[in-house]
Amino acid sequence: MAVAGGSAAPRIAAGSAYAWYVLGVLFLVYILNFVDRQILSILAQDIKGALGLGDAQIGFLYGTAFAIFYSLFGIPLGRLADRWHRIRLIALGLALWSGMTVLSGFATTYGQLAIARVGVGIGEASASPSAYSLIGDYFAKERRALALAIYSAGLFVGSGFSLPLGGWVAHAWSMHFAAGHAPLGLAGWQAAFLAVGIPGILLALWVTTLREPPRERADGGRHSVWGAFVEDVAAILPPFTLWSVGRIQGALRRNVALLAVTGAAAATLTRLTGDTLQWWALGLGIYAVASWLQKLRATDHPTHALLFGAAPILAALAAFSLITFISYSLFFWIPPYAMRAFGVRADVVGVMMGIPGAFSTAAGVILGGRLSDAWRRRSARGRIYVCMLSVITAPPLLVAALASRDVGTLYVLAPLVHVVANLWLGSGAAAIQDCVLPRMRATAAATLLIATSLGLALGPYSVGRISALTGSLHTGILSVLAVSPLALLLLWFASRTLPEAERSRFARAMAAGEPAAARS
Questions:
Q1: 11-208+220-227: CATH number
Q2: What is the pTM (predicted TM-score) of this model?
Q3: In terms of Cα–Cα distance, which of 160, 83, 86 is closest to 361?
Q4: Dist CA 378 CA 494 (whole Å)
């Protein structure tokens, strides 16, 4: 037996003390993953003033610049984790995104900060696929769910600490160097990026000391590992996509047509809004995903048929994209709104909204998952009903929160908004997983990631754009509710037809070429 991408290593007992030690290190990695991702929210006001940016540009930095490249590179990096040394991949990814976070602290222009955020997205895409694979090797089936739950908790811990930590560092630095003479001339918001980025580089060195569990090599030698990675990257990254789809009969003409249409749409939207980076980055993402789908259809037609040949699944994915359009917008923009509307300092808002926001988001996800399982036992449509409940209950709570006349009321209501806005997440993921074969679950998860990343790419930007047009962030945040009726309509359609898609998945897969043995 050989370790993929490395030499043979001694087998470590599943669930041993060393396995828990590895899990603890991975937990720290995931915390930093979300600290570096979310810290932009509490620093948004200072960055706007320092770089002369508008709300739409801030929304782009948080949403599109990160989401597009995070979701796209998650596909080839996830597949590389199945073939290569996962410890090294996590360490390299952590060093990349931490280094890019440090560079964010030295950014003096919008373009420099945008490039740094793209780097953060690419680096962070390496973490979870490798970590999930490692945890699967280090823990037996009986302990695996607990281990994965502990790792996943890093999301909420990181989200919770990003706001108070970023707010405190930025405020303390600005107060201490109020008279000038700050080291390297750094402002408070720049120091905050360095404060969370530098520890990540040190943690990357720690990660390299972990042992890679032995596993069967998935393919040939080192050349085939990197050759396959290059092919995976070529399938999503223009202009190499043309070479990738060119090997599929009849695909090149459709791909070139899609490239032309996407480019024309991006150029038109750029002329209308002036936001060049937003629309060309989004256009790149849409074209890249479409190119990947062309390759998926040619190389794994049964998976393509189950995920993209069924109208109810497409409706559900579209609805989930709209829901994340709402939830990501709220999570990012409500803290800056509190600072503007009530004149509260960043460090205070960070504590009062960051930690409660993390706990309430976690509570919403867990509550929604438990409700989904219970409702699913009563009705085949139960999972979608939970998603519909999330869409229905969020608007009145959001309206009440933004109608608050004092910041204390906002502090109380905002966590309730996060609870209901995140009820859908586990239920929606499970609904998609229910409709595919076991071997297709990773691709189904990647598909859901792409759908939610589209919501992240458009939601925070749209709030910022409407805020800029109306001169009111209050109006910008409320505008996200405009997509709620469409999301509800799509979910209603999915609820009527998704049970049949689940029941017929084996027959449809075999009709698309899946071997009959797949049913077992």
A1: 1.20.1250.20
A2: 0.87
A3: 160
A4: 17
